[in-house]
Amino acid sequence: MQIDQEVSKNLRRIRKEKGLTLDKTAELTGVSKAMLSQIERGVSSPTIARLWQIASGLNVSFSQFVIASPVINTQPNTLKMSDDRSADDWVNDDFFVNVLFPYEASLGFEVYELGLKESYEHKSEAHNLGVIEHVICVSGRMAIHCDDAWHVLGEGQAIRFSGAQPHSYKNIGNGRAVFHNIIHYPPTDY
Predict the structure, then answer these.
(1) For the chain, which end, N or C, has fewer CB atoms within 10 Å of the first or last residue's CB respectively?
(2) Distance between CA 164 and CA 169 in Å, rounded?
């Protein structure tokens, strides 16, 4: 699967750029040295939750793991992303992830399109302090669990919340629910 190759290559690149050993990376992320090594060698595929855990521990954006090459712009420019989707965008049979705009340091955010099959719930661990999520329901009906409550969204409705808490996205309608997620990171060395 193409995404596994990108995750493997990018994890190794990010770890080396930060001058980290596998032991130190394990300490920072809470993911075992053995698992990190398996991911880097392409032997194991991390779950979305595990990949977020690694990204948070390394203080980098999630999209830096799944895109072919990092976007490095000091000044934002016009960028049109393709609407071409492949089977690789499906993380599993129930959850779809498409990076619309990868993280750019000059902007401080990344944008995703996500899809949930009927009745599916995706649970997310807390991100780093200061991370803010903006979720916009594009189609279907969904609920977001944050701030100890469920918040229902229909098509065109949106919610903003702190990503520094465990949170969930759940499809509560018929058919697939599709939403956009804009994740804003606080100014750091992402």
Answers:
(1) N
(2) 15
In a domain, 174, yes or no: yes
Tell me the CA distances in angstroms from 46 to 37, 93, 163, one per residue in order: 11, 15, 20
The pTM (predicted TM-score) of the whole model is 0.72
Tell whether 81 is covered by a domain.
no
Report how many domains make up the chain.
Answer: 2
Q: Per the structure block, which two tokens stand in for 87?
A: 């089977």
Q: Return the H-helix or E-strand segment holding 5.
A: helix 2-17
pLDDT of residue 146: 97
Residues 93 and 162 placed together within one structural domain of the fold: yes
Contacts of 36 (CB under 8 A, 6+ apart): 11, 15, 22, 25, 26, 29, 54
